[in-house]
Amino acid sequence: MMEITLQHYLILSTVLFAIGLVGVMRRKNLLMLFFATEILLNAVNVAFAAISSYYGDLTGQMFAFFVIAIAASEVAVGLGLLVVWYKRTGKIDLDTMTSMKG
Amino acid sequence: MEFYLYTALFAPLVGSLFAALFGMSKKNVIAGIIPSALLFVSFLASLKLAVYILGGGEPIHVELMTWMATGDLYIPYGFIVDEVSVTMMMVVTTVSTVVHIYSIGYMDHDKGFNRFFAWLSAFVFSMLVLVMSDNFLGLFIGWEGVGVCSWGLIGFWYYKESATWAANEAFIMNRIADLAMLIGIFLVYWNTGSLQYDDAFAAMPALDMPTLTMIGIFLFVGAMGKSAQFPLHTWLADAMEGPTPVSALIHAATMVTAGVYLVIRAFPLYDLIPNVGLFIASLGAFVAMFAATMALVNRDMKRIIAYSTLSQLGYMFVAAGLGAYWVALFHLMAHAFFKALLFLGAGNVMHAMHDELDPFKMGALKTPMKWTWIMMTLASVALAGIYPLAGFFSKDLILEVAFVEHHYILYTVLLLTAGLTAFYSFRLVALIFHGDDRHSENGVHPHEAYNFMLYAMAPLAILAVIAGMVFKTPYFEMVTQLLPAIEYHVHNHTVFWIMTIGTQLFVIAAIVYAYKKYAKAVKVDKKVESGILYQLLYNQYFIPQFYEEYFTKMYRELSDMMWKIDLKIVDATVDGVANIFYNTGKKTHTMQNGNLSTMLRWMVIGTLILLVLAAAFYIGQSDGLAMLLSGLGVI
Amino acid sequence: MFEAIAFYTFAILTIVMFTITVLTRHALYALSALAAGMIFISAFFFLLGADFLGAIQIIVYTGAVMSLYAFGMMFFDTTRDVIEKRTSPQLVFSLSGLAALTLVAMFTAPIVSSNITAFYPAIEGVGNSQMVGMVLFTKYLIPFEVAAVMLLVAMIAGIILAGKKMDQSLTLMKEEEIKRQLNEKAEA
C-alpha cells in the first residue's frame, strides 16, 4: 500500500467519476448539474495524467490539456444559454423544462 | 377432333360465366337463353364425337397444359374421349340441354333466375370435367365441382332454412366420402407412381391383394357418398328442397351417377378384386330394396321419385359389382332419360298445384294436364321395365346378369324390388292423374305447363321409348372396345323364357294392383297409417333421427368445446401478443417525459450496460477471469 | 513515503470536497467545494510530474471556470435553497456504485495495462513544460489551432447569449442616433 501504483490513481479516478455520476443523476438545479459535469471531467483528467506519467508518454497530458480547454468553452456557452432561459422563464428547475416531452 | 372436345367441355363454362354477369340484376330471359344455346352447342359437339367413336374412331387424348410437375409427380390437365366418356357426355349434355330449356319456363317467376343458370351451367361444366378427365385428380376436381354446384343449387332458395340445411347436409355427407376417396387416390399414387388412368391401371396387376382391396374399398366409399348408398343416403331425399329441374339434372341423371362412373372407369382395378365387387353388388341390392320400401308409403311426390333414383342406383352398382360394367353404364344411360322425364313431369304438376307435394291432395289431373300425364306414364312404364321400352333392356339385363353369375339371392332381391318399383311408380301416377278430384276443394285450378317446356321434355320421352331397342347393339359394339365384353345368356332357353315372361307378368300384376288401389276415390286410412310397419317405412327407418342423435349432436358438442378452446387459447394468445406491445409502450413512454434528469439517468444506465457487456465479452474471450482476480490480488 | 502520504491526503480531501458538491442543498457551498476540489486535483498533477498541466488546471479551471460560475450564480436567486424532489436515491447510488465497480474491475485487469505501449515517448533530461511545448507545437499543432478557433466561437457565443440589445451595433450607428437614444432613455 505504500507504493503508489497506477492502479491507485485509476481507482481514485473511478471513485471521482462515480461521485460525478451521482451528482449528474441527482441534481434538479441546472447550475448544480453543471458542477457535477465538471467533476466528471476532472476525474477523467486525473486518469489521463496518471497513465501518461506511468508510461512515460505525453499523450495523456495533451488530452487532459484539451479537455480543460473544451471544458472552459463549454462552461461559457452553457452559462450563456442558462442566462437566456432564466430571463425567459425565471426558473432553472429541471422538472419544469419538459417541453421536449413525448 | 380436339376442337369438338374443347367445345363440348368449355361451352357450358362460357354459358355459366355469361349468366353470372347478370347475377345481381333483375331477371333477364337472355341469361337463360344463352346458356341453353351454348349447352345445345355442347350437345352437338358431343354428338359429333359420339358418331366418330361409334364409327370406330380412336379415343381422343389431349393434354391442355401441365398442372403440377414436381419431382416424380406429373399431373396434367388432360382429357380423354373414349367409349365410356363419350357415353357419359351424351347423357349429360342431352339431359342438361333439356333441363336448361325447361328451366326457362319453370323458373319464370323466380327472382334468382339469372343466378340459377349460372349455377346450372357451372354444374354441367364440372360434370364434363369429371367424365372427360384422364387422371384421378381431374376426376376429383370435377367431383368437388359438382358437389359445390349441387350445394348451391339445393340451397338455391337460401332464405328457406330447410333448403340451406339440406344443402349443407348434402355437401357434408359428400365431404365425408371424399375423404375416403382422397385416401384412395393417395394410395393409387403411392403404389403405382402415377395418377393417369392408363399408367395406374397398367401397374395395378403387379400389386398385392391387400393393397388393391384397400384402394378399391376407399374409392368405393367415395362413390358411396356421391351416389348416396347406405349409410350415406339421407342427403338425397332431403335434396328435393331444391328446384325441380335441379333434381332432374343432378339427382337423377348426372351427379349421383358419378359414383357408378367411377367404378366403371376403375374397372381394371375392380376386375382384380372380385370380393370387393361382390360387396359392392350386395350393398347395391340392399339399397335397391331399402329405398323401394321407403318409397311405398311416402306422401311427398318428389321424395318418391328420389327414392326411386336411389333404388335404381343400387341396380347399377349390382351390375358394376358383378363385373358387368357395360350393363351398368347402359342402365345409367336409360335411367337418366326416364328419371329426368319423371322429375320434369313432377315439376309441371308442382307448378300446376301451386307447389303442393302430397299426391293425396291431387287427383284427376289427366284431363287438364294431358301431355304431362302421357309423358309421366311413359316414363313410369320405362322405369318398371316393360317391353319394349328402355327399362326392359337395361334393368332386366341386370336381373339376367345376377342370375347367370349364380347369385340367386341377389336375383331374388332385385326381382322383388322390380315389383315394388312398378307398384310405387304407378301408385304415384294413379294418385296424381286418376281417381277423384281432391284438389279443387283447396281452391287449386291446375293448367298445363308452357308449350315450349313440353317440347323440351319430348326428346326425353322419345329416348325413354327407343333407347333400349335402338341403341343397345351399337352401344354394345362400341363400348366393349374398352370395357370387358361379356355377353350374358341364360343357356337354357326354357329358363330364359320363364324368367323374362315371369318378370313381365309380375311387374304388370303390381301395376294393376296399384291402379286398383289408388285410381279411385281414395281416403287416407288411419288404421294402416298407425301400424308399426307403416311408421317405420314412413320415417325412413328412423335413420335420420339416429344420425341426428348420435352423430350430429355429439359433433356439435365437440365443436362447441373446440370453440371455447379456440377463444381462450388462440384468441388469448393473439391478444396477449398485442397486449405485450401495448403495455411495454405504456411503461416505457415515461422515458420520453422531456425531463433532463430522467434522460441523464437513462444515459448512465445505458453506459453501465455497455461497460458490463464489454467486460463480460472480454472476460469470456480470454482466460481473463483468472487474470482479473489475480490482478485484484485475490488469487 | 512522502508521495504516499501526499497522495492519500489529497485523495481524501478531493473526495470529501466533491461529495459536498453533489450532496449539499446550498448552491454557494457547492460552488466553494467545487473550487476547492479543483485545487486539490491540481495537486495530483504536480504529484504526477505534470507541472504544466497542474498550473493550467489552477489558472483555467479554478480561476476562470469557477469565476464564470460565480458570475452566473449572481444572476439566479440562489440564496434560496433549492427544493429538490428526491426520486429514488437508492437507484442513483446503486447505479453509480455498479459503474464504479465495473470500471475498477476493468482497470485493474493486468492484461489491459500490460498491452499499453507509448506512442510519444518522453524525452529524458528535459523539463515537463519544455516537453509539453515540443509535443504540443509539433505533433498536436492542428488540435491546438482548432481548439483556438473553438474558444473564439465560444467567446462570441457567450457574449451574444448574455448580452443586451444585441440587435443594435454601436459602431455602425450614426452619432445622432446614439444621442437621440440616450436622450429618450434619460427622459423615460
What's the arrangement of secondary structure elements?
The complex is a heterotrimer of chains A (102), B (635) and C (188).
Chain A: H1 6-26, H2 30-55, H3 59-89
Helix pairs in contact in A: 1-2, 2-3
Chain B: H1 2-21, H2 30-54, E1 60-70, E2 73-81, H3 83-106, H4 113-132, H5 136-154, H6 161-192, H7 197-203, H8 209-226, H9 234-238, H10 244-253, H11 258-265, H12 267-272, H13 274-296, H14 301-321, H15 325-352, H16 370-384, H17 390-404, H18 408-433, H19 451-479, H20 493-518, H21 526-529, H22 532-538, H23 543-588, H24 596-621, H25 624-632
Antiparallel strand pairs in B: 1-2
Chain C: H1 2-23, H2 27-47, H3 51-75, H4 89-108, H5 110-113, H6 128-138, H7 141-162, H8 175-187
Radius of gyration of chain C: 24 Å
The order of strands across the largest sheet of chain B is 1-2
Percent of residues in helices of chain B comes to over 70%
Rg over alpha carbons of chain B: 32 Å
Q: Would you report the number of β strands of chain C? A: 0
Largest sheet of chain B: 2 strands, antiparallel
Low-confidence stretches of chain B: none
Average pLDDT level of chain B: 86
Spell out the helices and strands of chain C N to C.
HHHHHHHH
> What oligomeric state best describes the polypeptide chains here?
heterotrimer
Give the number of domains of chain C: 2
Mean pLDDT of chain C: 82
How would you describe what is shown here?
The complex is a heterotrimer of chains A (102), B (635) and C (188). Chain A has 102 residues and is an all-alpha fold. Chain A is 76% helix and 0% strand. Chain A contains three helices and no strands. In chain A, helix 1 (6-26) packs antiparallel against helix 2 (30-55) and helix 2 packs antiparallel against helix 3. The longest helix of chain A has 31 residues, at 59-89. Chain A is elongated, with a radius of gyration of 17 Å. The relative contact order of chain A is 0.13. The model of chain A has no long low-confidence stretch (mean pLDDT 87). Chain B has 635 residues and is mainly alpha-helical. Chain B is 74% helix and 3% strand. Chain B starts with a helix and ends with a helix. Chain C is an all-alpha fold. Chain C has two domains: 1-74, Four Helix Bundle (Hemerythrin (Met), subunit A), CATH 1.20.120; 85-188. Chain C has helices spanning 2-23, 27-47, 51-75, 89-108, 110-113, 128-138, 141-162, 175-187. In chain C, helix 1 (2-23) runs antiparallel to helix 2 and helix 2 packs antiparallel against helix 3 (51-75). Chains A and C meet through helix 1, helix 2 and helix 3 of A and helix 1, helix 2, helix 3, helix 4 and helix 6 of C.
